[in-house]
Amino acid sequence: MTVTRTKSRGDLKKDLSLDELEILLEISSIVNSGLDLDEILHSVHSCLPRLIPHNKSGIFFYHDKNGKVTIQSNIGLNERLIKLFTENITSDSLFLKLLKTKKGWRSSDLTVGEEISNNEYFYSALRREGIYYTIAAPIILEGNFIGTVHLTRPESRRDFTIRDLRMLELVAQQIGTAVKNALTYEKDIKEKEHIISALEQKVKQAERLAALGRAAAIIAHEIKNPLTSIRLSLYALEKKSSWKMDYHEDLEIIKQAVERVSRTTEDLLHFSSNTFLKLEEIDLNELLKNLVDEFREQYRKGVIIETSLKKPLPTVMADCEKIKEIFRNLITNAISATDSGGTIRVSTTHSFDQVTAVVEDWGTGISPEIQQKIFEPFFTTKQSGTGLGLAIAKKNVEAHGGTIKVESQPGWGTKFIITLPAYGNNRRGGHDE
User: Fold this and answer.
1) pTM (2 decimals)?
2) CA torsion through residues 81, 83, 88, 90, sign
3) Model confidence over 196-221: pLDDT tens digits?
4) H/E element holding 210?
5) pLDDT score recorded for residue 117
6) Among 102, 130, 212, 311, which lies 20 to 30 A Cα-Cα from 138?
7) d(CA 213, CA 220)
8) Secondary structure of 241-264 in the HEC alphabet?
9) Are 72 and 82 spatial neighbours (Cβ–Cβ below 8 Å)?
10) Position 176 pLDDT exceeds 70
11) Residues 38, 29: contact at Cβ < 8 Å?
12) How confident is the model at residue 238 (pLDDT cuts 50, 70, 90)?
C-alpha cells in the first residue's frame, strides 16, 4: 500500500494546540534536565498519553550486535505481551519496516499478508490483548537505529492519524537526544575519572618521592653520627692500646653507636615488611601491668606511672610481641614528653565488642598541625630517631583490626587511645589497680 504523507513537520508545528505545545516543551525540559536516563525515559513516556491518547505503549531499545530488543519503559503492557513482542521481533512487520527505513509508520499503512500468514498466532494474540492499531517511531542516534516507541489502541477506537505519527516522531527525536546526552555525560565522567586517577597517581608518586627523600635524610643522619662515633672511638682505642691506657669508655661509646644503628635498621625492616601475626589469646591487663613494672624498674623515681586497669576485661586475640612493641613505644614517648617527676597513666576499659587502652601524659602536648602528621612515616620532631615509631604502631594496630588515635592540647598533655576487637567473654578476677 502506498502512503501519502500529507503534512510536513513544519506544517505540524503550525497546527499544534497550546496544550500540545506545553506538553512538547515539558518533554524538552525533561530531556535537558540532567536526570538519569531511566528517569528521563519514564518521565517522557508518562507525557505521551496526554499528547497522543492510547491504552498501551512501550519504549524499546534494539541491540544490533545480537538482534535482541529490551523494554526500557512501559505503560499497560503485561509481562506476557512484553515477552511476546521481544521474542518475536523478527516477525513484526512494523518493527522491521522501522528498522529498514528509519522512519515512523502506522500498522494500517503496511501490507502484511505474508507476515500474518507466517506468524498468525503473533497477530491474533495481540488482538486478544486489545492491540489492533499501532504506530511506532524509530529512536535514532547519530544515524543509527537504536530503538522504537510503540503506541497501541484497541479495535473499538479509531486508527492513529498521520498527525499522531508526526507527533510521535518528534518525541522519538527527543528520546534520541536524551540517549546522546547520557552517553556524552558518561564519556565525560570516564574521561574526568581518568584525569583524576592520573593526577592522584602523580600526587602519590610525589608523596612517595618526598617520603623517600625524608627517609634518606633521616637514615643518613641516624647512621652517619654513630659511624662517626665508632670511627673516632676505634682511633682512640688504637692509640690507647699502644699506650696501655684504659679504653672501656671508648668501648661503651662503640656499643651505644652500634645499638643505635641496629635500632634504625630494625625500624626500617619492621615498617617495610609485611605484618605477620602470631595470634594468641592475651589478657591485656596482665600484659600492660608487666610492661609498666619494667618501666618503673628502669626509671625508678624519675617518673610516676599510674595504672587504672578495668576488671574484668575481655581477652584479645593478638600477637603478644607486637602489642608490647606498640605500648612500649607509646609509654616511651609519654616519658619523653613528661618532666622529671611527672605522671603518666595507663588505663583500660571495654564496651560491647571492643577493648580500649589509653596511654596518657600531662606533658607539653602536641600542636594540631603536628597531630595530623605524627602517624606519617619518617616524620619526627626529635633531633634523633627515624620517625617510624608511631607509623609502625599504627600499622601493627590496624593489622589487629583495631584503631589508634591521638587527643592532645598544647600545655595540657597527650592521650593515645588504642581500640582492639574483644575476643572472649571470659573474665579475669581482681579489683581495679
Assistant:
1) 0.44
2) positive
3) 777 777 777 666 656 665 665 666 56
4) helix 162-242
5) 41
6) 130
7) 11
8) HHCCCCCHHHHHHHHHHHHHHHHH
9) no
10) yes
11) no
12) low
